[in-house]
Design goal:
Elements (H helix, E strand, L loop, with lengths): L7 E4 L7 H12 L3 E3 H10 L3 H10 L7 H12 L8 E4 L5 H13 L4 E8 L2 H9 L1 E4 L5 E3 L18 E2 L6 H15 L1 H8 L3 E5 L4 H16 L4
Parallel strand pairs: 1-3, 1-4, 2-3, 4-8
Antiparallel strand pairs: 5-6, 5-7
Helix pairs in contact: 1-9, 2-3, 4-5, 6-7
The structure holds BIS(adenosine)-5'-pentaphosphate, magnesium ion and zinc ion (ZN).
Length: about 230
Amino acid sequence: MSTSAFGYIVLLGAPGAGKGTQAERLESDLGLPHIATGDLFRAALKQQTELGKLAQSYMDRGVLVPDDVTIAMVRERFTQPDAAKGAILDGFPRTVDQATALDAMLQERGAGVTLAPYIKVTTETLLSRLAGRWVCRRCGGVYHMLYNPPAREGVCDSCGGELYQRSDDTPATQLHRIEVYLSETAPLIEFYRDRGLLAEVDGEQNIDGVYRDLLERVRRATQRPS
Ligand code: AP5
Ligand code: MG
Ligand code: ZN
């Protein structure tokens, strides 16, 4: 199976780094689906499926959902036709075992990870981004009360849906998520660096600045020599 020119892009970064924000923009510019495991778990929870109820018990504590459950959910998502040629992966993989499973899944379709952009941000910035985040209940659009406010308070600009704060955005859970990230997910930076796929992006810039650098790295990595 042939992949799109951009293939499978793995967005790395701590909680609050801006993965979801940037993935939304890449999705529309590159024409690839944005697959975020956190969003898939939250959608399952909204529908009160067994998967959703199971995931909630982990998410509310700010710890990772077990690898087997997460990998099975991504494998299922990959069977949908929109993901056949590439995707923007946000929040997956999050452990070395998930990264190895992803490689195997992509290999089955004659593909691989094309690039792993790492949005690098200090802990102080992460906490201020998480503290001011509001999310649309209907379309998942991401806002920040200072850095990216909606035109009307509490209302989504794109769909008119109600904005809410995630239940795992309490100060204690935010800190714990960052700790879990450092111990379980940060090793993936070396994992992808070793494979020559890491692209570090300065995440301290504003949303447009980060996006400009990110897009440039994606274009450079996926351009075929002519
Ligand atoms: P998940 O939903 O993935 O949460 P996360 O990793 O904690 O990341 P966030 O969504 O909090 O941050 P983000 O980087 O997307 O930032 P955003 O763009 O929103 O996971 C939640 C839970 O699900 C996990 O804790 C775990 O339990 C479970 N889970 C998910 N995937 C899993 C997996 N693979 N394995 C096991 N368990 C899994 O931006 C944050 C804020 O900053 C926003 O307000 C935004 O407007 C603002 N902002 C963004 N960029 C900028 C900028 N450049 N300047 C100023 N403000 C900015
Ligand atoms: Mg996110
Ligand atoms: Zn919306």
